[in-house]
Amino acid sequence: MTHEIYPCLWFDGQAKAAATFYCSVFKNSRITSDTPMVVIFELNGKKFMGLNAGSQFKFNESVSFVVTCDTQEEIDLYWEKLTSDGGEESQCGWCKDKFGLSWQIVPSILATLMSDKDKAPRVMQAFMKMKKFDIEKLKNA
């Protein structure tokens, strides 16, 4: 028997608004079920549950979602959408959306750059100074 595993995100009455927002950010996304208590949605084919559970708990950086991007245009697009309308920029490719959920918008080439033992320290020094990742600056580090 296969047991499905997916995240449940706790919202203060904003699960539907959040699901709608996330579905607008990521292609191939949709809301699959919507009740007053729970919204089930898919982002790029990955299942999520949004729970309208009240203000008792808030998101923090101990949980974040990583979005790997092949191009600077993709990084710019996700960064702009996720930080819009009350979201916040942070350091090293991290940001928060308007609901307080943390995201890491990361170039797919980063793992390759960091695997080069000679280049990795320079790459790390470069990205530690960045908020949104700049692929060209990382490549040229």
Quick gist of this model?
The chain is an alpha/beta fold and 141 residues long. Helices cover 30% and strands 28% of the residues. The chain has 2 domains: 1-57, 2,3-Dihydroxybiphenyl 1,2-Dioxygenase, domain 1 (Roll); 59-141, Roll (2,3-Dihydroxybiphenyl 1,2-Dioxygenase, domain 1), CATH 3.10.180.
Can you tag this structure with a few keywords?
141 residues, alpha/beta, 2,3-Dihydroxybiphenyl 1,2-Dioxygenase, domain 1, 4-stranded mixed beta sheet
Question: How much strand?
Answer: 25-35%
* DSSP helix fraction: 25-40%
What is the string of helix and strand elements? EHEEEEHEEEHHH
**Classification by helices and strands:** alpha/beta
Global mean pLDDT: 96
Count of all domains: 2
Q: In angstroms, what is the radius of gyration?
A: 17 Å
Count of DSSP strands: 8
Q: Could you please say which CATH topology of the largest domain applies here?
A: 2,3-Dihydroxybiphenyl 1,2-Dioxygenase, domain 1
Spatial sequence of strands, sheet with the most strands: 1-4-3-2
Low-confidence stretches: none
Globally, the shape reads elongated
Distance between the termini: 48 Å
Largest sheet: 4 strands, mixed
Number of helical elements: 5
Assign the CATH superfamily of the largest domain: 2,3-Dihydroxybiphenyl 1,2-Dioxygenase, domain 1
CATH architecture of the largest domain: Roll
CATH class of the largest domain: Alpha Beta
